[in-house]
Every structure is written in C-alpha cells, then in structure tokens.
Amino acid sequence: MIEIESFIYRQLESSPLFYTNFNNMRLSALRTVQFNGFSYTLQMNPARIQSATADISKKPDTSRCFLCRANLIQGQIPYEYNDDFFIAVNPFPIGENHLTIISQRHQDQGIMKIVDKFVQMADDMPGYVVFYNGPKCGASAPFHLHLQACKAVSLPVFAQIESLKRLYTIDSAEFSSTNVYKIDDTTRRFIVIQTIDRSQLQYHIEKILREINFIYQSVEPEVNMGILFEDGYYTVTIFPRDKHRPEEYFRTENRIVCSPGYADLAGMIPVSVRDNFYSISENDITSIMRQVCISLEKFNALNIS
Ligand SMILES: [Zn+2]
Fold first, then answer.
1. How far is the CA of 253 from the centre of ligand 1 (A)?
2. Which residues of the chain form beta strands (DSSP E)?
3. Quick one: CATH architecture of 4-158+202-301?
4. What is the Å distance from ligand 1's center to 211 Cα?
5. Mean pLDDT value of segment 198-209
C-alpha cells in the first residue's frame, strides 16, 4: 500500500508550483456533454497545452528527458515505490491526486513487459485508476516508460460502466470468475475486463493485448489502458487505437487542440484552448473518438473468447 495522501500533502506543502497547479485544477470549469447512458466531462485546463501539442517525434537523450530522475523539476519529490518505479506528483494534473509512476531506468514506453507490475500498482492503490498511454497514443514522453494514476471519481467511465455494458455490449465472454466485454457506445470502442481473481487478471490482460497485436500486426500494442481495484474487484478498460490525433487537430480553421490519451477516452477531456472548451459539441466528440479508436472492422475481428 502506498501512503498517497501524505505524499501529495508533502509535495504541495513544499512547492508553490504544485500547490498552485493542484488548486487550479480543482477549481477549473467543467462542462458535461451527455450521451445516451454515459457522458464526457470537459475540463478547462490551459496548463495542459504543452502535453496536448507535444512533439513526440523527437527522442531526447537522458540529459534532457524530463522523466529522468536527474531532471525532475525543481522541488519535485520522488517517492521510492520499488526497484522498478518511483512515483511523482504530476505537476500538470487533470484528475484528483494525479500521479506519474516513472521507470527508474530510461527505457521506451511499452506495456507487454510490465503487465505484472501494472496489476501490482493497481493492488497497491485501491480506489485509484492506474493507467497507461501507448507511445503513439497520448504519452507525451514515449521515450521514458511511465504510467499514471488518479482517483477513480475523476474518470467518468468507471461510474458509467454498468450502464455502458447494459446498453452497448456487442460481444462478451465468461470465464470462471472473469467477464470480458466488447463495448461500442457510438463514440468509443473498447474492452472491459472484470474479475475478483487477481491470478486470472494478468492472464486475461495479456491475452487481449496479444490479440490486439495480432489485429494490428504489432509487437507493442497502441492502447490506452486503465486498471481500477476497488472493494476486492478489478475493472480494466482497454482502448485499442487507430490514430494518435484526429483531423480536427490539424485544421487551420476551427481547430480543436486535442491529443486524446487515457483520461479523454475514460471520459475526462482536458481542454487547453478556451474557445474549444465552450464550442466542443456532441458531434465533435463523436468524430474525434471514432477516428482515434479502433475501426469497426478491426474491432469485429478482435477475438475475446
Ligand atoms: Zn528518461
């Protein structure tokens, strides 16, 4: 178990930057866009502009990598989690108690090698969603392995999962104490795994990730994935991705500055441009999610049984 609350308190107390940014996030304007049986929350968050427009084609060496321990921002406190990862408070939060879980070693973003550690993180942070962004689908630092975590209340999809399952399941599979669902909610296409059995969890996650690799002919799947462990129960959401950014991002007129990552797909969309915050419509969200999520053809081909 990790003493998250006291660690965050210590970080906010000792650094005006963290204190200010956490308060700004808590006070940020929110706007809900309602769909049938679920919703997205837009969060006015100008501090996210660098992350939304990050150029991930450049690969910095360790002397300039902002996740390498030697280059943490001034006043940022590392929490020694284990031999593989340390934890830092996210300086530009989008959710309650937003943390970054950073590899001790400078190595590329990749999920296949760390599924066991990912599950362990969820175990160690009950009530928090531990999440991963693939190197070309939302990670603003794909050159240094990292995950993130925040309180589950900040990510709408978790409170809506029963409604999403009831209304939009297009396929499901039942194993001894594990259920797997394919959901197409008219905006997103994604996989949900639910289980009480920790030993089965890793097996089923790896199986789905291998299937996604098979569909995309990849060795590292482009996915956004989150695990929540709460009340003895695991809920995993996996969003396979077709695209990093939608065409709206590249427009010269009516541009929407967004690079969807796990939080966006989980229903919390940080918006860094004020005009976008007020104008983004149900149709915009549908268009963006449809482009960046797995295509219907590929989703149909994805075997979950
Ligand atoms: Zn690094």
1. 36
2. 30-35, 38-44, 79-80, 85-89, 99-103, 128-133, 146-151, 169-174, 178-184, 189-195, 223-230, 233-240, 268-271
3. 2-Layer Sandwich (3.30)
4. 30
5. 96
Provide DSSP, 155-186.
Answer: -GGGTTHHHHHHHHEEEEEE-SSEEEEEEE-S
Could you tell me the distance, in angstroms and rounded to a whole number, from the CA of residue 57 to the centre of ligand 1?
15
Residue type, 189: R
Nearest C-alpha neighbor of 209 from the set 86, 278, 106, 110: 110
| Cα–ligand 1 centroid distance for 277 (angstroms) | 32
Phi and psi of 187, rounded to 5°? -120, -60
Amino acid at 90: N
Distance from the alpha carbon of residue 293 to the mean position of ligand 1, in angstroms: 28
> How is residue 262 written in tokens?
């796990």
| pTM of structure | 0.96
What residue spans define the domains of the chain? 4-158+202-301
Neighbours of 167 (CB within 10 A): 15
CA 84–ligand 1 middle distance (angstroms): 13
Q: How many CA atoms lie within 13 A of 94 on its CB side?
A: 30
pLDDT digits (tens, 9 = 90+) for 227-268: 999 999 999 999 999 999 999 999 999 999 989 999 999 999
Helix H or strand E segment including 25: helix 16-27
